[in-house]
Amino acid sequence: MPQRLITLAERFAGDVRAVEPCSGGGNNRVYRILTSEGLVAGKVYGAGLDERDRLGHEFGGLSFLKASGVGKAVPAALACDTAGGCALYEWIEGARPTEHGVADIGAVLDLLSGLHEAREAAGASDLPAATEAVLGPSDLVQQIDGRLARLSALGPSEPALAAFLATELRPEAERHLASLRAADTGTRLAAACLTLSPSDFGFHNALRGPDGSLTFIDFEYFGWDDPVKLCADFLWHPAMRLSEEERAAFLAGVTRLYAHDDAFTARLAVCFPVYGIRWILIILNEFVPQLWARRSFAGKGGDWEVAKSDQLDKARAMLAAVRSYREGIFHA
Q: How far is the C-alpha of 99 from the C-alpha of 241, rounded, in Å?
């Protein structure tokens, strides 16, 4: 445990009595810290792994949400050391949900509703865009082009990846991207159509408490974004295993929530398979040495060759789901 995190805990949470490492995300280390005043969660963000300000997005976002009254289902931000790359948060007692159902979709929709209402709260306009926000068609096209280029550059040393990209993924990607490129007029979504988004959102980033309630964690990418991206990511995320009933409940709920945007439903229908392709490219991040280093920092490494092979299998399975997409039928 870094000394700067111990110092931060002792300054804001009491004398440190015990420290226990926990399973963190793919980019950080998390600790359960017992102090003389009780339990807190300590988080250390990987420094120099990329240019993203994960600490700023998460600590600033959670601080805003508590101040805005949207804090019931998210942890409180307690203190941070920006220079030291660490922060303290409310300790949430619970475990990752191994099962979930339609009732839990209600908790998801409650949080999304609170986030959407918080758009009008004091300080909301000062919040950053979510990491890799999509504020217009060109953003999504550029993100996919960029990810494809980065993976394609690995071709000489990764023949299996190169073959998958060239013969399987690129033809499907180009088919869907053509419609987005044709529709891109350079316009951006109006501010009224945007929402506040955790970005990496789902049951994989939730804890179920002893009373059965859900608390949503991991706001490292939080900020302004298109609700279509939020919804498509929720449905496509490879860590999610949603039943047809859960999908239907979610889609009905978000359709009502974002009904003020007349183009929401049509935009989701067109963009949904493109976000599936984007997720295929994210799944293949394990092939990128710098991103594998980030996994290793967070203790999520292992045998790199095995990991790459597994991710390529997952990418093929998701590509099959993208190919089977029919407009308005949101299966994954």
A: 9
Backbone angles phi, psi at 26, to 5 degrees: -85, 0
In one letter, which amino acid is 89?
Answer: Y
CB-based contacts of 18, cutoff 8 Å, min separation 6:
33, 34
Best CA proximity match to 145, nearest among 331, 137, 50? 137
Summarised one tens digit per residue, pLDDT across range 183-212 is 776 789 999 999 999 999 999 999 999 999
> Which tokens hold the place of 118?
């918080």
Give domain 3-90's CATH number out of 1.10.10.10, 3.40.50.10490, 3.30.200.20, 3.40.50.150: 3.30.200.20
pTM of the predicted structure, to 2 decimals: 0.91
Q: What is the pLDDT of residues 226-257, one digit of tens each?
A: 999 999 999 999 988 899 999 999 999 999 99
Tell me, what DSSP letter sits at residue 125?
G
